[in-house]
Design a protein that fits this description.
By secondary structure, this protein is of the alpha/beta class. It folds into 2 domains: 2-198, 3-Layer(aba) Sandwich (Rossmann fold), CATH 3.40.50.720; 238-441, Rossmann fold. Helices cover 45% and strands 14% of the residues. The protein is built from 19 helices and 14 strands. The chain is globular, with a radius of gyration of 23 Å. The structure holds uridine-5'-diphosphate-xylopyranose.
Length: 441
């Protein structure tokens, strides 16, 4: 099939590459000419495991190309995916749908024949219907562009796998006999024809839009739940990690997303729960989601608690102390530093007078751009050299596997702060390190 993907960020670029991998001919479109040039040269503009090789393969095979020219995409494809950003709007924290709307406004008049427009961006409920109106008024007389909603659930770090082997495919349509649904099923046929194919949930546009934000709100709530319990564990002298293992054994609960620690960050969860609350308010259902405000504040509190714990571990103040912060990305296997708890903590420590030295395996360049006043090192050991305390803020495998003896040989103090409850504490304690973690009494 001939497919276009508008937006070449984490979502759009991954989707374009994966559609080519499924056998389609794909054109990726973006307004950012630099990004397009890099992608066209087979160079991924962000870190995502597995993406560079698939990108190079399909650019080389000619199945994937990139452009800034909307009319090229309009003429080429019959199925147009939209994966542009919906950033947080100031001051009401609602999602800004300007970019999504602009794609439809610009694309619709250029369409030479009937087409299907598939929204993948995370949007406030009601956006798809509005986009259908924009499409209706934009297309040339006699043509139709059906808007379908197909939310994306990919996680950074697992984006390729989540796209090619999803848990479910949700298709939101306005009418029961939607051509868009059939076209989308054909596009995903290689996934749906597998022996153990994932379920397809076909629903109305509004439900499809809400599925995405509800899923993210649930995940955020699960993380904040365990972090709230973690605060009680701290007060009571209990261990939240063992508690999470124990409650996670209940099938109805499950252990995933019960990782207590610095909490959630990134470009999705924090923004999506705020946008969800804002939209519920607009719809007159604001009371329904007030608990998400608490979910948000529990999460933000973790960062302050981490700073307090670090002060305590450093003898009451971090002023004049050198702290190695291991991790800058919001989670491992990503170079994304948007709303990163790790960098937030590093920034707060620095404001309190600590000499903070940050290291991350992939996110250093992005971190330097966002927090230029922090100090950065080129390796974990370089960051730890002369440090009074070592703070693990992102659970990269490289940090979990650090050798306490080697780190101890270069650090000034043997103080380990585990912001993600990911370090093998016994190993470090046996070698004379003082171990501090959130929720571990
Ligand atoms: C999320 C959703 O998982 C994905 O389905 C959606 O499409 C986009 O948003 P992502 O932002 O890539 O994906 O990251 P995710 O793996 O969900 O982690 C989000 C944050 O929660 C990270 O900062 C992570 O460190 C944190 N987290 C995750 C915890 O603090 N504890 C956990 O147990 C799990």
């Amino acid at each position: 099939m001939k497919i276009s993907v508008f937006g070449t960020g984490y979502l759009g670029a991954t989707h374009a590459v994966c559609m080519a991998e499924l056998g389609h001919t794909v054109i990726g479109v973006d307004v950012d000419a630099t990004k397009i040039e890099r992608l066209a040269a087979g160079d991924a503009p962000f870190y995502e495991p597995g993406l560079p090789s698939l990108l190079r393969t399909h650019v080389a095979s000619g199945r994937l190309r990139f452009t800034t020219d909307y009319s090229e995409a309009a003429n080429f494809a019959d199925l147009h995916f939209i994966g542009v950003g919906t950033p947080q709007r100031e001051p009401d924290f609602a999602a800004d749908t300007t970019f999504v709307e602009q794609v439809v406004r610009d694309l619709a008049p250029l369409l030479p024949r009937n087409a299907i427009i598939v929204g993948k961006s995370t949007v406030p409920v009601g956006t798809a219907a509005k986009l259908q109106e924009l499409a209706n008024t934009g297309v040339a007389r006699g043509l139709q562009a059906e808007v379908v909603w197909n939310p994306e659930f990919l996680r950074e770090g697992f984006a390729i796998n989540d796209t090619l082997d999803p848990d479910r495919i949700v298709i939101g349509v306005a009418n029961a006999n939607s051509e868009g649904e059939q076209v989308l099923r054909r596009a995903y046929a290689p996934i749906l024809e597998r022996e153990r194919a994932c379920p397809v949930v076909v629903t109305d546009l509004e439900t499809a839009e809400l599925v995405k934000v509800s899923a993210n709100a649930f995940l955020a709530t699960k993380i904040s739940f365990i972090n709230a319990v973690s605060e009680v564990c701290e007060a009571a002298g209990a261990d939240v990690t063992v508690l999470a293992d124990a409650i996670g054994l209940d099938d109805r609960i499950g252990r995933k997303f019960l990782g207590a620690g610095l909490g959630f960050g990134g470009g999705c969860l924090p923004k999506d729960i705020r946008a969800f609350m804002a939209r519920a308010g607009e719809l007159g259902a604001d009371q329904a989601l007030t608990f998400l405000r608490e979910v948000d504040s529990i999460n933000m509190r973790r960062r302050e608690k981490m700073v307090e714990l670090t002060s305590r571990a450093c003898g009451g103040t971090v002023l004049g102390k050198t702290i190695a912060v291991l991790g800058a990305s919001f989670k491992p296997n990503s170079d994304d530093v948007r709303d990163s708890p790790a960098l937030n903590v590093a920034g707060m420590l620095s404001l309190k007078g600590a000499n903070t030295i940050v290291y991350d395996p992939k996110a250093l360049a992005n971190a330097r751009r966002s927090f230029p006043t922090l100090n950065y090192a080129e390796s974990a050991l370089e960051a730890c050299a002369g440090a009074d305390a070592v703070l693990v803020a992102t659970e990269w495998r490289e940090f979990v596997q650090l050798d306490p003896e080697t780190v101890g040989a270069v650090a000034r103090g043997r103080v380990l702060l585990d912001g993600r409850n990911c370090m093998p504490s016994d190993r470090w304690c046996n070698l004379g390190w003082s171990y501090y973690a959130l929720g571990r009494g």
